[in-house]
Amino acid sequence: MLNFTRCVVLALALVATTNAKTIADDPPNIILIMADDVGIEGLGCYGGTSYKTPHLDAMAANGMRFTHAHAQPLCTPTRVQLMTGKYNHRNWMSFGILDPNEKTFGHALSAAGYTTGIFGKWQLQSYDPPDLPGAEKRRSTGMHPKDAGFDRYSLFHALHTEDKGSRYANPTMLEGRRGEAGTLKTYEGRYGEDIWVEQILKFLDEESSQPKFVYYPMALPHWPFQPTPHSESWDPTKPQETALKYSDDMIEYMDTSVGNLMQGLSQRDMHSNTIVLFYSDNGTHLDVRSQLSDGRSIAGGKATPKQTGIHVPLIAHWPEHIAPGTSDALVDASDFVPTLMDLSGASMPDNAKRDGISFAPRLFSTPGPQRETAFFWYDSRPGWDKERFRRHVFAVNKDYKLFRDGRLFRLTEKPLEEITVDPLLMNDNDRAAAKQLAKFMQQTLADADEPPLVDAYGNREHDLTYKPAGREETNRINKRLLETGKKLVYGDESIAQHRLWLFSPLDIQDGEKRPCVVFFHGGGWGGNPAILAPQCVYLQRRGIHTVSVHFRAPKGDVTPADTLRDARKAYRWLIDNAAEHQIDPANLVIGGGSAGGHLSLALLTIALENDPAITDSPRGMVLFNPAIDLVEGWEGGREKCEAAGIDPMTFSPAHHVRAGLPPTLVMSGSEDHIITPKMLDAFQARMKAVGSRCEVTIYPGAGHSFFNYGRNGGEYFHWTMWQVESFLNSVWVKPTE
Length: 737
Description:
alpha/beta; calcium; Rossmann fold; 737 residues; Alkaline Phosphatase, subunit A; 2 domains
C-alpha cells in the first residue's frame, strides 16, 4: 500500500499557492460520498442523457473525472472492500456484515488527528431476518457503527433489518457517538438525504482544532423507487408509492443532495481546504434503462459482473489543488484506503495485508505506482434474498475481463461494452491478455484462503471450477450433486429406473414459473443419471429448472424401443406435472450427451407402436456429441438394435429429420469417432433443408464425452456450458402467465 507523507503531497499538490506549508501544518478536510446504485450512465458528465445532474457535472468539470473506476457488483462487497482496503476473499463473512475485528479508514484517520463522522446508510451489523434458515449464525455478528472509528454517526439500517424503518420519507436513523450504542430517531415529514446533508454541514460547523473526515454513504438512488421532495406526488403524510417511474427523480435528487452539500461548503468558504470524492458502490438497478449520448440504451447491471454492474463514476474535487481534467487510471474499491492515507498523512493501525494502490498521485499528475489490473472476488452469500447469486472471481484491465472459469471478454472504446471472446477463435492478443489476467488472479489469491462456497443459507456448495483428481473422485462428486436434486417417479414405481431428478432454482417464488432443461444421460443407453448432474447444477444456479432422467437399459427383455418409451414417458410426465413443479411448459428444452443425445432427437422423430413421436416440440435441443446416426455411425447402438430385431435405419433419428424440429445446438469433438464431424455436417444439412435452425460446433482435439465434468481439466465443461447459456437465451420466450 502506497503511503505518501503529507509534505510530499503538499509539494506536489499546492503548486498554485504561494505559501509552502505542509499538509501536516494545514491538513485538508476530506469528504467521501458514495452513491447507492448508479453506474456511469446515470451522470451527464459520463455521457448520460436520461437525467439532469448539473451539480455532479460541475464537480467533474472543475475536478478530476476518472474514466476507469470500478466497484464490486453489489453494496456490501464494495463497502467492506472500501473501508478496509482488502479484497473480499480476505475478510468476507456474509451479506450485510463487516467483520467487527477489522480496522477501517475511520480508525486510521481518527488516530491521525481527524474528527470523523459517518452519515447515511450502514447495513453492516445485522441483515438477515430472524426466519431465514441459518440466520441465527449471522444476526448481530457485524460491526456496530459505534466501533467503526467514527466520532459521530447518523445511519439508516444500523441494527436489525426489521428495525430499519424508512431511508427516504420519514426516515429512521440510529444516532450516536463513538462507543455509544446510539438512539433510533424518526424524522417525520422529512427526507433522508436532506437530514444527512444538514447533519454533515452542522458537523463541519462545529468548533475544532482538528480537520474533519466525513464518510457519506448515500441512500439514493437505491430501490424502493419512491417520490422525492422534487416529485409532483411528494407527500410524506401518506403511504409512499413504490414504482419504477420514480427512479429518474431519485437519480436527480442524488445530484441535488450532492449540490446542496457543495453549496454548503461554498457558503462556508470551505472549498479550498476540503477534498470531496464522489463514488458509487455498484451499477444501476437492473430495471432501470438509461440513454447515452452515443445513442445506446443501457440496462442497469447491479449485482452482475457485467461492466454495467462494476463500472462506476469517480470524481475528485479540490479547487486550486486538483486541476480540472480526466484520468484513465484504473481504480477499484480497495484503492480508497491508501488514497485517504496519502491525502491525510494517516496510516492504518495494523499491519494486515491490503490490496489497494493509492490514486493520490493521479489527482496531482505526479509519478507513482499505477494499477494495471483490478481483481474481483464477488460472492454476496450467505444472506437474505441472495438465492439467485453465485460466486464470480475475475480480473479486469482496460482492454479485457477474464473470469476464473476461463471466460474472456474484450472491452471496447465504448464505455460499458464488452464482447465475448470465443475460446476457439482467440487471437494472440486475447491469449496474452488471458495469460496475464490469470496470473494476476492466481497471485492475488495465493496468500489467503478463500471463504467456503455456500448457498444463501450458509450450506456448502460444490465449486464447479474445482478439478477432480481422477474419474473416481469425479464419480463421487457427480453422485453427491445428483442427490441435491428432488427424486421423483415418472412411470411405474416398481421399475427402479423410472426416476428423474429435478433441480429447481433456490430463488423461485410461489406461483412463479421458470424454464426447464431436461437431460438424458449417455452411456450407450445404459449409464448413470449422475453423469449430467454437474450440467443440471450449473444451470440451476443460473435460475433454470433442470432435470436428469433415468431409464431402462436395453438388456434381457428390455429393448432399445423400451428405452425410448421410458424417455418419452418422462418427457410427457414433466409436461403433465409442470404446474405442480413451477415449470413453464412453453420454455422446455431437451438435451443429452452421446446416447442421451440420440434419445433427445428420437423423442421428436422416431414413432413406436402406441407411442407416437412428440409433435408439440420443445423450445430447443442441446446435444453433446449425440449418437444420432445408427447407420454409418454409432456401432454399439446399431448392434443393440439388430439384437432386438430393430432395423437401425428406423431407429436412427438423423435419418428422420422432419419439418418443425426446434432450434438445435450440437457440440462435438474433431476426434469423436463414434459420430464424426462429417456425419454432423450431414445432419445439419438435413435440418437446414427442412427449415430448422441447427448450430454445430466442433471442438478441435476433443474426443467423445469431452464435455463431461472432470474431463480435460474441466475446460470443455465450461466452454460448452457457456455455449449452452447463450443458446438458451436465444430460444426462451417470455414466461407464460
